[in-house]
Amino acid sequence: MPSKEIPQQSGRKDRAGAASNGTSAAAESRSNQRVKGARAKAAATAGVSQPAAGPGRRGPLAVISRRAADRLRGGHVWVYRSDVEKVSMVADSRLMHVVDQRGASLGTGLYSTSSLIALRMVSREIIDENAWQELLRARVLAAVQYRRRLLEGGPAGTDSCRLIFSEADFLPGLVADRYGDLVVLQFLTQGMATPMVRATIVEVLREETDVRAVFERSDPKIVALEQLDAGTADPLFSRSDPPAHFAGASTVFRLNGLKFHYDANSGQKTGAFLDQRENYAAAAKHCRGHALDVCTYQGGFALHLARSCETVTGVDSSRSALEVAEQNLALNRDSLGKLEVEWFEANAFDLLREWSDSRVLFDSIVVDPPAFAKSKRAAEGALRGYKELNLRALKMLRPGGTLVTCSCSHHVGIEEFTAVVAAAAADARRQVRLIERRGAAADHPVLLGVPETEYLKCLICIVES
């Protein structure tokens, strides 16, 4: 339980990114109408599909603007609804042939009738439903095999990762996270939330992994936006007999040798964010002394800091998150010894202002707030928020201390974020050396041409006098 309460609240922490905010897409270079299994697998791995069928193919068709066509040719994979000039629909089909104003083919996309992103491209050629199913299976298989290599070749004590990262794995609108013996799926688009897609994913996971169960837990906001089915609380797949139903959606998983609770039914995201796994380890390597974790949520950074620091203080506005953080601390008591972590329920802005004005000092500070900018219009306000938190943190660091500061707002780029930290350092009259510039872990690859897949920024700095 939290050891001290401060009544201000700032709301539950949320993680934003290309996948979690519903902005998903895919890129592919070649595909045909009859993609055979082995050829489709090679295509999925290399990002290349097979030769297309002839131009006389009939079916669902979308004509898009020149602006959108230029964007696709430049490597992006989204078409916004405002750029769709004409749509010819076929009942129950989400695959759509996409052409420019002159009729030149741009490939095949998944169509949404409700999202602002009307089309998410899955191939640069014309493919039919049969070819799409073959390609889907090949891409899911390639994504799972890539993560298997990461886990087998990575640090000991990690059994969890993002198995599928939407557009970055050429599977727009699909996210799959593995937490120990559970896999949790999120469907973010109409084109992905189909019985065929669910069945194909479950088949690959059953064959290629040893997970106990697969659950579907799509974001309610995305479900409403995309007009999707709400899904079921029961697993899509379970190895247990009888099947693990609603009560079987909880587990304990491991990151970097630490244990964390996960409950797919809790309605909250896990506090040990998978995209921060490598940054957790980097923070523990650099941080020493008395440490502060701002926006700790369920203790992801705080528990890693407890391995290398003398004391750790975690701050978050969510009481329920801090209660899980305390449970996570108890899970790791044997490996962390008697070191105590003190939890404060508080609004981070208010508490840091109070502590910095009172000259409360730390040797290491982590700042990992939720996404402040979930749209371009919010970017300016987000920059002010990031500057305020980092300014207060810089004032609270002893000379030679370590600042680990993060942003998961896609609409704030790495250059802008670095400039904000530099401006905060100038206002705080501190000299700051940047020693590491980091992003998401390797299970969250970046698709070049789709900047939305590169959303997480992490700067590790040494703060001088």
From TrEMBL:
Gene Ontology biological process: methylation
Matches recorded under Gene3D superfamilies: PUA domain (2.30.130.10), RNA methyltransferase domain (HRMD) like (3.30.750.80), Vaccinia Virus protein VP39 (3.40.50.150)
Subcellular location, record wording: Cytoplasm
InterPro entries: PUA-like_sf, PUA_sf, RlmI-like_PUA, SAM-dep_methyl-trfase, SAM-dependent_MTases_sf
Domain S-adenosylmethionine-dependent methyltransferase: 256-420
Protein family per UniProt: Belongs to the methyltransferase superfamily. RlmI family.
Name of this chain's protein: LSU m5C1962 methyltransferase RlmI
Organism: Acidisarcina polymorpha
